[in-house]
Structures are given as structure tokens and as C-alpha cells.
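Worked example

This section walks through a single chain of length 257. The input is the sequence exactly as stored; nothing has been trimmed or padded.
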Amino acid sequence: METNKKKVALVTGANTGVGFQVAKALATEGYTVYVGARNLQKGEAAASAIGNAAKAIHLDITDTDTINRAVAKIQDESGYLTLLVNNAAISHAGKEGRTMEEVLGAQKPSIASMSELRTVWDTNVFSTLAVTQAVLPLLQNAPAARIVTVSSALGSLTLNANPQNPYRAAFDAVYGASKTALNGIFLSLANELENTNIKIHLVSPGFTATALNNFQGTDTVEHGSLEPIRVALAEDLPNGSFTGPADFAGADNVLPW
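Given that input, the structure is written out below as C-alpha cells.
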């Protein structure tokens, strides 16, 4: 087992938004951070902005070849991973430039495009798990490792079954339900790995203004990144946690499944 104390992280979708903020915070705290990006030039620009502790890595989570090359690169350069942050995700696969309301209106289960549903779920659910499976051997080489997966409170069945939830109308079949499926898979993984060196955490950034919602979220990306950063840096959270910002989830940050 790897005994080197230097912490190494991979953050997917790290060239912008919450992923960039998390990668920057990890680098500040002494991690070597692989900045995963579909577009390597954008990844290199982000890594340069973060500093010497950041390394751009080409990673399209929907492309098995780039996943395998990224894993091989990290294996060759570092030999292990301390932390995987699954941040890459999409909210829709339809026409660009639509408002958040237009996107949500098209993603109601009664009318949702099967093609769009499959595309979003392929990225948010299947590809996120594919990356995780691919890097598990690297995580197993660390004395203590963690997987932090950026989810959403929109994935909570408990919250969306509550008529008092003001965000309930946004729970759609395409994006919202993809986060429910993501939660289920990673809770299953937490159960599987509970007696190993790897802990699993899911985290909601809150209603953050990013490209996912056409920058119509109510929180700045800096504010929305606070909870993912907290979870990414924390090493004492219980395995299988699901948390969100205190101003939504409450003082203990715990979100219901």
C-alpha cells in the first residue's frame, strides 16, 4: 500500500464552475490536483490559473479511452489517488441558450425526450460510475481515500415528496431524477466499501449560478462551492454522507435521501 503522505486529487469537470473552485481549494491545502477537462486547452488554462500544484488532464467522462488514458497518466505520475471529486455533469442535451424554465418545461416526465434523458443519464449516472470504477485501484493504493460526488438536493425523494418544498416543481425526469439515481448508486457503493480504506460522500452545492442552469441560480459559484469544498477537505465525515449548504439543509448540513 502507498505510504507517501502527499495528497493527490482528481476533479472531473474542473476547468470551470464548482469544479474549478474545488480544485483551487484543494491545491491551496497542499494537494496535487489533476484538473479534469473535456477540452485540454481549457484544462491547461484552469491549471495555470490555480498554480503549480495543478495539472491539467484530458478527461471526457463519457469517453472510455480518455478515462483509461487519464488513469494511466495518474498511475505513472503518482501511483495513487487520495481523493476523487466527481463533479462533471450536464443538465440537458437540447438546444443551447434556453432559459432554465424552458429546459425544465421540456423535461417533464410526460413529454421528456427519451434521447435527451438517455444522454443526461449517461453522463450524470453511468459515466460518473465508470470513472469511479476506473480509478478505484488508485484509491485503493492510498492509506485512506475518499470519493466526493457532487449531487443535488433535487435528487432527494424525501424532499421532493414534501408539498412544502419550494423547489419541488423543479424535480424533473431528466436532470433531477438523474441525481436520484446517482445518489442510489453511490450509497450502494458506500455500503460495499464500508469496511475498506475508501469513504463515499455525496454533496449538494445548492442553487448555484452555473452553466447547468443557464447561470440563473440564486447563489454565486463561490458561495455554492463552499459545501463541496468543505466536504472535499473534511477527512472525518461518516461514510455514506449526503450533505448540503447549512442555509438549506440546516445546521448539521445533512440532507435526507
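What to look for: The mean pLDDT is 91.
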